[in-house]
Hints:
This protein is mainly beta and 373 residues long. The protein is built from four helices and 27 strands.
Amino acid sequence: xxxxxxxxxxxxxxxxxxxxxxxxxxxxxxxxxxxxxxxxxxxxxxxxxxxxxxxxxxxxxxxxxxxxxxxxxxxxxxxxxxxxxxxxxxxxxxxxxxxxxxxxxxxxxxxxxxxxxxxxxxxxxxxxxxxxxxxxxxxxxxxxxxxxxxxxxxxxxxxxxxxxxxxxxxxxxxxxxxxxxxxxxxxxxxxxxxxxxxxxxxxxxxxxxxxxxxxxxxxxxxxxxxxxxxxxxxxxxxxxxxxxxxxxxxxxxxxxxxxxxxxxxxxxxxxxxxxxxxxxxxxxxxxxxxxxxxxxxxxxxxxxxxxxxxxxxxxxxxxxxxxxxxxxxxxxxxxxxxxxxxxxxxxxxxxxxxxxxxxxxxxxxxxxxxxxx
Length: 373
């Protein structure tokens, strides 16, 4: 008779209990709230679909809703899934919530900056951002401000296709690139059912002139006509204008994602084995104040694959008031081992009247009162 190891059972119970806790919020003596969100979404290498975790500043709780339900709900303010953070506005939801990074840039700053932010530091609302598309393949061309020439950057990406196959991809040439579109886009790729990317590359050219959009299947090596892109895994890449979308995340139902291998100094020829360093495949997603041209909310070490918060301070306009927010950690220690996807952040209302009312009556009653005015 087979016997189950007691240590294995203990660890299974511990991890099950940890993963079952979607949120923990406490209020500290100084009035700050600190929240830990379970944004693990099945783990770092999961290819199964998982919903975001939706948090409300009003209730200080996670809303038990699906992604489909969240798309028509105004009850949540911010959502988490692995390292991706969304706000309920723009392409992410109907809540008209926006945000702003008060310390935008690549540098890690002191955590103490959070304590020094008050209402007088907040710019006009026109500076706030609503969520918009943030594409995983986003550095494939360059613009010379002197000559005004747009050309291929030659940056290589490792890809996971819509159906989970391994690939590498690079754009080599742009012809007739104009103000509104990239003209003819020539690119190379290698795709494999396993991990071998050393084989001979294939090449193709697609024409997006005049506003044309082209769906492309890497396995078939050809353009494809897709009746319903939102429900089809028969395409891997979509070319239009100056955008290359992947069939995954925000852009499609597939498993497609990309690793910016060029950031590690690799060329197309250097890559012979898929994801040899164990990197994370990034899907197309909703960009928000937490992910702008100035950078992500975190710093990513390509050698250790560890995410560290930059400690930037964000301001969220909830519609009922302003909240300042600082992300502190992406990991939670479980039995001595750091587990990724547990996001710790602190937050606090920064309107003087709002923060006073919150302490006295709570967010739920305040929101009701504001709605009656």
